[in-house]
Amino acid sequence: MKYKETAVITEQREIAPDIFSMWLQTDAIAKEAVPGQFISLYSHDKSRMLPRPVSICQIDGTKGRVRLVYRIAGKGTEEFSGYGKGDTLEVVGPLGNGFPLNREYDRVFLVGGGIGIPPMAGLAERLPGEKLIVAGYRNSEVFLKEELEKNGKLYLASEDGSVGTKGNVLDAVRENHLTAQALFACGPAPMLRALKAYAAEQGMDCYLSLEERMACGVGACLACVCRSMDVDAHTHVKNKRICKDGPVFSADEIDLG
Amino acid sequence: MKYKETAVITEQREIAPDIFSMWLQTDAIAKEAVPGQFISLYSHDKSRMLPRPVSICQIDGTKGRVRLVYRIAGKGTEEFSGYGKGDTLEVVGPLGNGFPLNREYDRVFLVGGGIGIPPMAGLAERLPGEKLIVAGYRNSEVFLKEELEKNGKLYLASEDGSVGTKGNVLDAVRENHLTAQALFACGPAPMLRALKAYAAEQGMDCYLSLEERMACGVGACLACVCRSMDVDAHTHVKNKRICKDGPVFSADEIDLG
Amino acid sequence: MEFRTSVNLAGVELKNPVMTASGTFGSGAEYSEFYDLGALGAVVTKGVANVPWPGNPTPRIAETASGMLNAIGLQNPGIDVFIERDIPFLRRFDTKIIVNVCGKTIADYCEVVEKLSDQPVDMLEINVSCPNVKEGGIAFGQKPEALETVTREVKKYARQPVIMKLSPNVTDITEMARAAEAGGADVLSLINTLTGMKIDIHRRTFAIANQTGGLSGPAVKPVAVRMVYQAARAVSLPVIGMGGICNGEDAMEFILAGAAAVSVGTANFNNPYAAKETAEGIQAYMEKYQIGDIKDLIGAVHL
Amino acid sequence: MEFRTSVNLAGVELKNPVMTASGTFGSGAEYSEFYDLGALGAVVTKGVANVPWPGNPTPRIAETASGMLNAIGLQNPGIDVFIERDIPFLRRFDTKIIVNVCGKTIADYCEVVEKLSDQPVDMLEINVSCPNVKEGGIAFGQKPEALETVTREVKKYARQPVIMKLSPNVTDITEMARAAEAGGADVLSLINTLTGMKIDIHRRTFAIANQTGGLSGPAVKPVAVRMVYQAARAVSLPVIGMGGICNGEDAMEFILAGAAAVSVGTANFNNPYAAKETAEGIQAYMEKYQIGDIKDLIGAVHL
Ligand SMILES: Cc1cc2nc3c(=O)[nH]c(=O)nc-3n(C[C@H](O)[C@H](O)[C@H](O)COP(=O)(O)OP(=O)(O)OC[C@H]3O[C@@H](n4cnc5c(N)ncnc54)[C@H](O)[C@@H]3O)c2cc1C
Ligand SMILES: Cc1cc2nc3c(=O)[nH]c(=O)nc-3n(C[C@H](O)[C@H](O)[C@H](O)COP(=O)(O)OP(=O)(O)OC[C@H]3O[C@@H](n4cnc5c(N)ncnc54)[C@H](O)[C@@H]3O)c2cc1C
Ligand SMILES: Cc1cc2nc3c(=O)[nH]c(=O)nc-3n(C[C@H](O)[C@H](O)[C@H](O)COP(=O)(O)O)c2cc1C
Ligand SMILES: Cc1cc2nc3c(=O)[nH]c(=O)nc-3n(C[C@H](O)[C@H](O)[C@H](O)COP(=O)(O)O)c2cc1C
Ligand code: FES
Ligand code: FES
Predict the structure, then answer these.
(1) Which residue out of C102, C110, C130, C246 is catalytically annotated?
(2) Which of A74, B46, C35, D27 is the S-S candidate for D86 at Cβ 3.0 to 4.6 Å?
(3) D269 contacts D249 by C-beta, under 8 angstroms
């Protein structure tokens, strides 16, 4: 089920420059959400009609809360960052499919790049088995480090080398001679492309969370498609809807170009 | 001079159902404002581009504050009513000409109808001489009574007779056998029309504050005109700009139709 | 007092005047997760062609002030899958089914219309005004003669009443409305999207891959109300009004301007309940002003 | 590094590409209370006719989503008062003066243009696209032949470069742009307002007395950018872009789309400093991306 709720912000703080962490009281959504799903946030400013899709970072089903961690990327996220405890936001969710949690792997990679790191925190909490978490940052402005360390072994990479391996997430994997049976990732497109190739090379199962501009967020408008290897079930034209068929795809389903 | 300021709300409360009183810290504007002038308030919601003109109710030049009293009439005023102490609003002002304060009258009428009452509070504070204040309400939901009583003798009228004279402001004038040398008024168009006729009949000087939909609020766009008796200085077509040549006009300048 | 919200479009009785705007509601499946589609007068489907269309490259949409641009490019599974899957799905709800038809040539339109002729759908809406595909579509929607011709041809194959959907990208909407009427249209719907463009100034490129896209949402509502008003007075056909409707108050503007029914489009993206709430809002308006029959409000703006 | 913001329009050198949109800035007097008009490339005045025009009844404006409707009806004091009062006023500022001219007949336009021919104004902008007056205006702006004729006639009397201001209420803006070019226009400006309507559903009447009005503001920006892009590629004249510009980022969209200069209109009503801040914003963009000359950005969107 999907719900539209008026969520109440129970906590918001800036956890790194321009990166905000927000806990939302949103009972129905929190109860059903799984890691890898996202929710649509709506602006109070009515000049902005479209939802802002944001991945669920952590889920507190007991308290009925979800945590979002987002970067200020434009006017909408800037608006959200100005709200505080007690303010409300219209939200719709949980949306999309989430990462597969039912496969039994002994050891998995959870790889997050930049603002793709947050969903890895919630995934690490729910995924069984040993977790090797690789988080790629731009620089020393790291965030969610504690949350990630709690549920797995954390390896850092940074573009400027100020923390962890200097380079990208794959550099960190290689530098630390890491191996696993499967790979779960979220981050910028070039990173996902490289990870897909790496997983194929290593014979790992690979699940990637994609992004695209969205309008409906629920699968109705066909704005957010990605190319798929096979004809899709919905329109039979090798286009999958990221909001509905994804955002998490098995890497071999999709054509990353 | 006119100023654009980011005004800080120092106090806001609902003083009658749907009627709000708001004090704004707006130093430059407060220093120069005179009763009868108005300020333009801008929505934070960018789907609403146009200013909301609101008359200045009271001026505290020392503290650099102005008070506005407004009724929720639509989305813009609804937005404003949701803000509280410490929130900010973009404002431009002081706008328009204000009531003439330099004429010496022994006794004057200050007449306000409905949401035209607020400017009478500030005018009563600044106008010399004896003041007979006539305030017309819809019903028993009166507001600003104390402020008005402080600076003149207050007579009430209400449409349903629940306070003061049952009827309109002129009914209250007649019932109390009031007379004066001049009349200053703000309120709905039918009231102003009746007052203009009454003042002419009684040989009183008469100053009326008018309203019209505004776009620029500063005299540039010619949205807010009223018909004038003589050719206007600006466009020579018997149209005066309420925002610039008014909102206060000598009744004999204007054609109320 | 009873409040009658039903309207009649070319013999089809809708329980209320609210439908969905084509392309914003799929074939209803996604929004049926939020509410019973039986709350609506009709569901208008995404445009369907004779064969599957892959649509345009991404990005396909961009947000604009109080609106959005889209260039989906009419991605659709083709009429065969549609008939097999979408019609049976929609039949489960107590609402009318209106199939939006797109094509590149007159023959394409006729092929789809013919395939639908024995299907349990209530009306057909012919999209001759999509600005987002290179061939066909918009060309028919911008020239009166072409519009009249395509209308006439389609009518030959149609068993259901035909709605011609007009483009707002024209100098004179009344000329187009009359052309559709002359061609035998049963109903008109308008407006489709206004052609627009957004530039990403930081990347110095177009915000959507197709360069231009169709503008929709509250931004276009004043243009839409004006055109509905003009079209409704120019012809004697019922008119379905759309463009920026978010709630009952917006819908009432169109109805007072002359629309016999209204569609909710972009607003669904802002609020999945928008269409349902629009129907409720119309009812609330009638109750507030004690108007017993919505028909008494159609075109009832004072001159 | 130095940043050159000056642009040249038909031989007239503007210190920066930002001007005011006609009708939103009077003749500058009111906004000169906020800042020195010398901050702008040019001031474009409210439309002026051969004789005073009283304009339309009120209400003349209505707010719409991210925009507004206006039907001022070109109230103006006539060319004689304008020459006597407004030109000397504007001459006090270090900015170019562009006079917007309106009329009901070709003879009206020519009369005003002739009277301005020996006046110290830099350019003339011919408004053939005002939707808010019954006669004239818009008719010239919607038919290519009429546009070409009025352009040619006006050019006979004009000593200053002539800007033809195009209406967006047309099927094909490139056809109109070419017609103006064929008639001898020196510069094009677009867009004027889109014809729109708003209905007051509670009073069941039109929100503005004139029934229809011109839609402007951010709502129309995508349509305006698209038309500027199309027009700039259709002709070899410089194009002045406008429609919803509120800041330097909006202005950059138009410049990248092909506009050699831009006008700020409705935004002045939201922020009296809008035009000045737009000029500053363009400069900031150039600094951010280290572009030394604005001319290198005109039409520089990647295909
Ligand atoms: C499934 C999904 C999950 C996401 N999860 C996160 C997250 O956990 N944390 C986070 O910081 N960001 C996340 N994003 C990106 C986030 O949606 C955008 O940063 C945000 O929408 C920007 O909005 P804005 O108003 O600030 O920017 P603007 O640029 O002003 O937005 C304008 C429009 O573009 C859209 N848009 C802009 N950037 C993106 C983008 N990168 N992806 C999709 N649409 C975009 C907006 O939704 C809006 O409609 C996610 C995106 C998707 C699709
Ligand atoms: C000079 C002047 C002084 C005013 N002083 C006061 C005051 O002291 N207290 C008070 O409560 N109201 C006052 N008003 C009326 C006030 O401006 C409107 O109630 C307010 O603009 C409504 O905005 P809204 O967004 O709530 O309503 P909406 O109806 O949503 O507004 C839509 C548009 O219409 C305009 N508008 C709506 N009603 C009016 C109106 N009555 N007059 C002018 N424009 C209107 C708005 O400014 C806006 O542009 C004054 C109006 C003028 C012209
Ligand atoms: C994402 C999207 C897809 C659309 N697809 C179609 C379509 O397939 N066929 C069609 O006739 N109109 C299509 N339209 C136009 C809408 O049906 C409608 O005419 C227009 O958006 C104006 O209404 P609105 O402002 O309420 O959205 C589409 C609009 C949008 C926003
Ligand atoms: C209140 C108002 C008055 C206008 N008057 C004129 C005019 O006299 N002559 C003219 O050519 N355009 C006139 N316009 C159109 C503007 O110059 C401009 O083309 C249009 O508003 C689009 O720009 P914007 O969205 O920045 O306002 C007027 C616009 C408004 C809002
Ligand atoms: S955003 Fe509409 S289908 Fe994905
Ligand atoms: S509101 Fe523009 S002249 Fe008064």
Answers:
(1) C130
(2) D27
(3) no
The response to whether residue A82 sits with its C-beta less than 6 Å from ligand 1 reads no
| Gap from C13 CA to chain B (nearest CA, Å) | 35
Residue ranges around ligand 3 (CB below 6 Å): A 215, 221; C 21-24, 46-47, 70, 72, 74, 100, 127, 130, 165, 192-193, 216-217, 220, 242-245, 264-267
Q: Give per-residue pLDDT as tens, D61-94.
A: 999 999 999 999 999 999 999 999 999 999 999 9
CB–CB contact D196 C226 (8 Å): yes
Contact criterion met (CB below 8 Å) for C228 and C257: yes
pTM of the model: 0.97
Minimal CA separation from B89 to chain A, in Å: 15
Domains of chain B: 3-95 (2.40.30.10), 99-211 (3.40.50.80), 212-257 (2.10.240.10)
Q: Is B231 in the pocket of ligand 4 (CB under 6 A)?
A: no
Instruction: From D183, D301, D294, D162, select the one nearest D233 (Cα to Cα).
Output: D301
pLDDT at A82: 96
pLDDT the model gives residue C138: 66
- Which of C24, C67, C217 is opposite residue A220, by nearest beta carbon? C24
- Return the SS3 of B97: coil
CA of residue C132 to ligand 1 center, whole Å: 24
Whole-number pLDDT of residue C132: 57
Chain C residues contacting B via beta carbons under 8 Å: 65-66, 218
Query: Nearest ligand, CA of residue D71?
Result: 4
Tell me if D213 CB under 6 Å of ligand 4.
no
Contacts of A244 in chain C (CB under 8 A): 30
The burial class, CB within 10 Å (0-12 / 13-18 / 19+), for C303 is exposed
Taking an 8 Å cut-off on Cβ atoms, the answer to whether B47 and A47 are in contact is yes
Backbone angles phi, psi at A233, to 5 degrees: -70, -30
Closest Cα to residue B208, out of B122, B125, B119?
B119
Instruction: Tally C-beta pairs within 8 A across A and D.
Output: 4
The reported pLDDT for the residue numbered B235 is 78
Backbone angles phi, psi at B87, to 5 degrees: -70, 160
The answer to whether residues B232 and B245 touch, using CB atoms and an 8 Å cutoff, is yes
- Domains of chain C (ranges; CATH) run 7-56+73-195+215-297 (3.20.20.70)
Evaluate whether ipTM surpasses 0.85.
Answer: yes
For chain C, list residues with pLDDT below 70. Answer: 130-138
Q: Cβ(B187) to ligand 2 under 6 A?
A: no
State the distance from the centre of ligand 4 to the C-alpha of D195, rounded, in angstroms: 12
Active site residue C110: no
Distance B223 CA to ligand 6 centre (A): 5
Cβ-count burial D72-97 (b if 16+ within 10 Å, e if not): bbbbbbbbebbbeebbeebeebebbb
pLDDT digits over B81-94, tens only?
999 999 999 999 99
Cα gap C58→C55, rounded to integer Å = 9
Instruction: Identify which of B222, B237, B239 to mutate to test ligand 6's pocket (most ligand atoms within 8 A of the CB).
Output: B222
| pLDDT attached to residue A139 | 95
Substitution candidate for ligand 4 out of D19, D22, D253 with most atoms within 8 A of CB: D22
- Number of other CB atoms surrounding residue C175 within 10 Å: 14
